[in-house]
Inverse folding.
């Protein structure tokens, strides 16, 4: 069975540093035979969570929008990679909106006790400031992955990217992202 790796791009900037690194990670996953899907969160129609708690009864969100398709992808994915730029020490608003709407998936795991197939996750965060603080976003995204039943196993933080797409000229960073993607895909040729 082919591994499905889902990449969530939280940047509203096309061809930005977050997207470059996410694409490289997905390319790494594909190099090991994974099926890959990239979703650009900034270009989806996703309303904020209304905290209605309807999902506590059946694990389904009461709102109807593009999250309907994303929930299915997130549940099927064997691995999830989240990439976001940092704004004021936090993830992008597009990423945060999707994270909050995953209360429905949290309810499935933690209220309704529905199992999820084991999965691994990675977090990629980039910032313009060289001395950017990543702790807030890392903490929230780790809690998010754990809450939806995915083990956060990899992370990459990179500051000082103050120009759009400048990471494209940073081979060591691209290689690190590629390796993250590869690490999320089991080696089917490994001996027991």
């Amino acid at each position: 069975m082919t591994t499905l790796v889902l990449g969530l791009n939280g940047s509203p900037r096309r061809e930005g540093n977050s997207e470059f690194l996410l694409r490289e990670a997905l390319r790494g996953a594909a190099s090991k035979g994974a099926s890959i899907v990239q979703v650009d969160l900034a270009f989806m129609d996703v309303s904020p969570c209304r905290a209605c708690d309807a999902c506590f009864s059946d694990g389904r969100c009461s709102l109807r929008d593009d999250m309907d398709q994303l929930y299915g992808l997130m549940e099927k994915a064997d691995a999830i990679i989240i990439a976001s730029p940092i704004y004021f020490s936090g993830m992008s608003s597009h990423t945060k909106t999707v994270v909050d709407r995953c209360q429905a998936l949290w309810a499935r795991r933690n209220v309704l006790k529905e199992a999820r197939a084991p999965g691994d996750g990675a977090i990629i965060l980039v910032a313009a400031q060289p001395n950017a603080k990543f702790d807030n976003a890392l903490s929230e995204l780790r809690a998010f992955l754990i809450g939806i039943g995915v083990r956060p196993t990899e992370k990459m933080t990179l500051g000082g990217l103050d120009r759009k797409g400048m990471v494209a000229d940073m081979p060591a960073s691209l290689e690190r992202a590629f390796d993250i993607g590869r690490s999320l895909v089991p080696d089917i040729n490994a001996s027991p």
User: Anything to note?
Assistant: The longest helix spans residues 17-31.
